[in-house]
Each structure stands twice: as C-alpha cells, then as structure tokens.
Amino acid sequence: MRSMGRLSGALGSAYGMFAAVFIALFLFCSLSIQASETPDNALLAFSARIVGDDARSRVVVDFDNKPEFSIHYVASPERIVIDLPATAFGFPAGDLAARGLFKDIRYGTMGEGSARIVLTAQRPVKLVSAEVQKNEDRGFRLVLDAEITTKDKFAELVRTQSWKNAELKQSAAVDGLPDGTSAKDGVFTIAVDAGHGGIDAGASGAVTKTPEKEITLAFAKVLVGKLNEQTGIRAFLTRSNDSFLSLSERVVLARQGKADLFISLHADTLGQKSIRGSTVYTLSDTASDKMAAALAARENLSDQLAGYSIEVPQPEIADILLDLTRRETQAFSISMANRVVKSFEGQIGLINNPHRFAGFQVLRAPDIPSILLELGFLSNEGDEKLLLSEEWRDKLTSLLVDAVLKYRGEAVAGGG
C-alpha cells in the first residue's frame, strides 16, 4: 500500500509538471501568434486614460510615434470608431475602462496593418475635437473630446460622413464651439437655465411647499418669451419641462446653442428665515462669504442627489470639463451682475451686498459670461408669496430684460 501511495504521488507530481509545461508552452505560443499579427513597425500605445461625466468625456491615448487616425460614427448603438495604423496596445485594460459618456470601450488589431478603438456611448454623442499633441517627455498623445448631442444630429453625422476621407486634422474641431463673448453672427443669444428639475426638486416653499423647480421654470419661460420679443436677441431654455439636467449638461447645452450669455435661475432656502431678497452670483474659487459658500455647495450637490457622481478633473483636461472662466469672460460676468443689481435697485428687494460670488459648477463655461440669480428665498414667507405672484414675476423679468439690453450694448461696444 505504501508503494502504491508513493507511485500515486510520483504520478501526481509528474502530471503537475506536465500541466505546468503545457500551460507555459500554450501561453508562449499565444503570445508568439499575437506578436506575429503586429508588424515590427507598429505603433506602441503605451498609456491611456479617460475622464468625464454624463455630458462630456475626454479620452487620451499616448503613442511612441505620431499616429494617423480617422473617425467614423456608427448607429445602433451609437458608437465612435477610431481607426489607426498597426498598433500594439501596451497599457492595462483598466486604464481605458468605460466611464462618463461611454458604457463600453474596446480596442485591438483589425488586420495586419490596422487597429481600431470603438467607443460605445450611453447616448448620442459627437466629437467636438480630435487632435494629436506632442508630449514633452515621450511620443505623442491622441486627445478625443466628446460631448452629448441629439439623436437627430447624431443621425446626421452618420448619414453625411465620408468613410473614404474621415481623417480629422490636428487641432481641427468637428463642430466648432462658440468663441468670444459677443454675438459674432449679429444675434445676441441667451441661454436661460431653470434650476433643478425632474428628480431634483430643489428647495420647497415654507408655506405652500411649492418646489423650486416649478418656480424657476415659470420664471424662465416668461423671461425667454420677453427676450425673444427684442430685436437682435434670441433666447432659449436649457430645459422646457420637468426634466433633470446635470450641471455639466446645462453648460454644454448653452455652448451648443452658441450662447453669448448664460442666466441660471434659482430660489433657494436659508436657515435664517428672516433673510429675503434677490441675489446675483458670479463664479469664483473663493466664496465672498459663508452664505455664498453654503449655497454653492448645496447647488453643486444636484448631480449627486440625482445619482450622478462629480468627477474631479485631471490638470490636463481641466480646460474641457470644469475650467475656470477666462479673465475676460469673468469680467463680462461681473458686468452683467452689476447691471442686474442696478436694474433691480428700488424696484425689487435685494439682500445686503446683492452681488456675491462662489464656486457654482453651473457657471463654469469657459467662454460664456454667466450669472446665477437667486430670485428670492423660499424659506421666507414674504419672498415665497412674491415668487408665486404672476404680477411680481412679470415685473422682475421685465427688469431683467432691461439689464440684458444694457449689458448687450456694453458687451458689443467692447468688442468682447
């Protein structure tokens, strides 16, 4: 019995060694086959990363040499296809794991002389830019900036693209973004943003419990109607019904609409119920006071309350996702805020120091002057009554239109 046991153990050891050798040979052969499929002169993609949210995402792939590439759009489901010359992908799969706008990302060899990256989107998307940039330390990087679009516009991209000549030249924008702070087309365009919406109801009235999202939408619709009655002005709503928009989506929609001015309307609550009156906010990393900081923090939670996570941008993509407004844009934002305060003075109740500033995410469009207007505070019974009054709504929006007209004259005269 002991000899049988020793024999059985020896056979087991031999089998284990054979299995190990077989697996090693199998892996060696597999790697050899894969290597043979990639030409010796293939590009090496040695690093990759992706960052973004539900409205915008950036994909970056680093290569040892400058890559030529072409872009195509494919429907059902919506995909962006990036064709490359022969490429060896040498980065961990987790570095390019799906996130942001994309629910699936795949890449690999397509044939002896070509490779492909396929970005499957959560919803219709488009590339606003695709370019190759030289790295300071090693090689080049392919940078792809994607943002949301409509089904119709995506279908148009699919229908009109040319598969024979789809290469995007370096630094070329696919669908040009607005540049500057004044209307280059002769029409001054304003994006009016009704705060909150859908699952994010915002604050609620102290007495009537009316949700903030209903109040802001009512004001926004009246304001857009009055603005569109003005010669040379076009206004549009970021949301026209009770739907949820993330903070990033609001900014993207304003830019896609080529807005020259962005006005976000809110009606928050405070713990101090005696405080009432309108307030105008502009963007700053440093809040003007504790109240401004608290309001910005609460407004910036809208995405999280609706189940969205806020991405902290990497330094290299900060200009695309959550960039600070340029100094010139910020100067125009402050000018608009001052115009609103002057228009309201003596007509609409204002809090002390009515122009304040804080880090509101919804004001971070880098090329659109932006303000956030707290119409009043739903925590105050007097303000709540006014916020529900059609007469007061008509008065406030008329004064706001006057402020816009004066600001427009200043902005256009300044050549911004």
UniProtKB/TrEMBL annotation:
Hydrolase in keyword set: yes
Keywords assigned by UniProt, alphabetized: Hydrolase
SMART domains referenced in this protein's UniProt entry, alphabetically: Ami_3
Top enzyme class: hydrolase
Annotated EC: 3.5.1.28
UniProt KW Hydrolase keyword: yes
Pfam families: Amidase_3, AMIN
Location of the MurNAc-LAA domain: 251-405
Natural source organism: Rhizobium lemnae
InterPro entries (UniProt xref): AMIN_dom, MurNAc-LAA_cat, N-acetylmuramoyl_amidase_3
Reactions catalysed: Hydrolyzes the link between N-acetylmuramoyl residues and L-amino acid residues in certain cell-wall glycopeptides
Domain of life: Bacteria
This protein's name: N-acetylmuramoyl-L-alanine amidase
